[in-house]
Design goal:
Blueprint: E1 4-14, E2 30-39, E3 44-48, H1 56-67, H2 79-89, H3 97-118, H4 122-125, E4 133-137, H5 147-159, E5 164-168, H6 174-188, E6 193-197, H7 204-216, E7 222-223, H8 231-240, E8 245-247, H9 254-262, E9 268-269, H10 279-291, H11 302-311, E10 318-320, E11 333-335, E12 338-340, H12 353-357, E13 366-370, H13 373-377, E14 381-385
Parallel strand pairs: 4-5, 4-10, 5-6, 6-7, 7-8, 8-9
Antiparallel strand pairs: 1-2, 1-13, 2-3, 4-12, 11-12, 13-14
Helix pairs in contact: 1-3, 2-3, 5-6, 7-8, 9-10
Length: 386
């Protein structure tokens, strides 16, 4: 057992390797806040979160001014207690994306530290339900791509053993979306799962119309058909749709998942470890879904989610979108279309610190250290600008 002695925060900006466009937005850049926590024994844990181009400086500011000073002097193993205390410290700004992303950066760092001290990989520490998971790809399914490109990418991923592909929908007419899906289905056959994602673009009437077309196309799930804060509309759609409804990437608390599950508004839960506030609440959302006999298929963050989906029994697939290649030396272990979680202690992400330090966004790099004595135990300490 050791108390938190030093915390470093910073942010890097990662332009996506390929153009990413969906029905409501373009993925401009991945702002990546990073938190490094060092305990009094010298053990280090690293955590992170992300945005798709806006809000990163606000996350850093919340970490700098509110959350990180409260970490100093705390027992690093008290992961649940720290998460609860930090949530209470920000209760006037929760539930919301900025707060959840900041909490996630801290919480994932604490889990990394905890696993490293125990000498265990995250997937075993958090449950150890299975040693690998099937992959599906989203990276070749963006809305701006022509039908031929969608079909070629899906066929190539099927050839690599992937279980399925997800395609963005939301073209102005149903006919356009239908033609794109038909082109992909013709290329991959009936034994390859196709999912679709509308990124909250439709109202209920349009979602109902599209759901009928998607059922005819044999679609595996219909993701984020409407604004995520409208649980009632999703419940109505779920009652009428023959295609399972998937939601969760735009939900930011465990209670929001509870509302969806209680109302039968989601057949697939897509909890995002960064957007729900970290590993601590992600595991609770996965187990809550299990109690409702609902699978969890998380959104994005494959480098971290691979360990979480292998920790729980009700996670049948992992989404393939490479995210951290530019700042890590590790790569997702893929064999015959299945992802295998890292066996090294911690999150299993090998950060390239030389590259990271060369890409820090100006004004986002801060270090905090304890000053000793009683003040440290209450979260007070000395901040040194980097």
């Amino acid at each position: 057992m050791a108390r938190i002695d030093h915390v470093e925060i910073l942010m890097v900006d990662l332009p996506p390797a390929v153009e990413r466009v969906d029905a409501i937005q373009s993925f401009v850049s991945q702002e990546t806040p990073i938190v490094r926590i060092t305990d009094a024994d010298g053990a280090v844990g690293t955590g992170y979160a992300y945005t798709i181009g806006t809000g990163g400086p606000a996350v850093i500011s919340l970490l700098e001014r509110t959350l990180v000073p409260r970490l100093l002097g705390r027992e690093a193993e008290a992961v649940e207690g720290i998460w609860r205390d930090l949530l209470f410290a920000t209760h006037a700004t929760a539930v919301g994306a900025i707060t959840s992303l900041a909490l996630a950066a801290v919480d994932t760092a604490l889990w990394d530290l905890r696993c490293r001290r125990a000498g265990l990989p995250l997937w075993r520490m958090a449950g150890g339900a299975k040693a690998s998971v099937p992959l599906y790809t989203t990276e070749g399914g963006w809305l701006h791509l022509p039908a031929q490109a969608l079909a070629q990418d899906a066929a190539a991923m099927k050839g690599r053993g992937f279980a399925g592909a997800k395609l963005k929908i939301g073209k102005p007419s149903i006919a356009e979306d239908r033609a794109r899906l038909r082109a992909v289905r013709d290329a991959v056959g009936e034994d390859f799962r196709l999912m679709v994602d509308a990124n909250q673009a439709f109202d209920l009437a349009e979602a109902l119309r599209r759901a009928d077309m998607l059922a005819e196309a044999g679609i595996h799930w219909f993701e984020e058909p409407m604004p995520a804060d409208d649980v009632g509309a999703h419940a109505r759609l779920a009652r009428h749709s023959r295609v399972p409804i998937a939601v969760g990437e735009s939900l930011y608390s465990l209670s929001q998942f509870k509302d969806y599950l209680e109302q039968g508004a989601a057949s697939i839960v897509q909890a995002d470890v960064a957007r729900i506030g970290g590993i601590t609440p992600w595991l609770k959302a996965a187990h809550l879904a299990e109690a409702f006999s609902v699978p969890v298929c998380p959104h994005f963050l494959m480098e971290l989610h691979v360990s979480l989906v292998c920790a729980v029994p009700n996670a049948p697939m992992l989404e393939y979108i490479p995210q951290l290649d530019a700042i890590t030396t590790s790569r997702l272990d893929i064999r015959e279309g299945r992802a295998h979680p890292p066996d090294s202690p911690g999150l299993g992400i090998d950060w390239d610190w030389d590259v990271i330090r060369g890409r820090i966004v100006p004004g986002t790099h801060h270090r905090f250290t304890t000053t000793g004595g009683a003040h440290a135990a209450h979260g007070h300490g000395h901040r040194a600008e980097a």
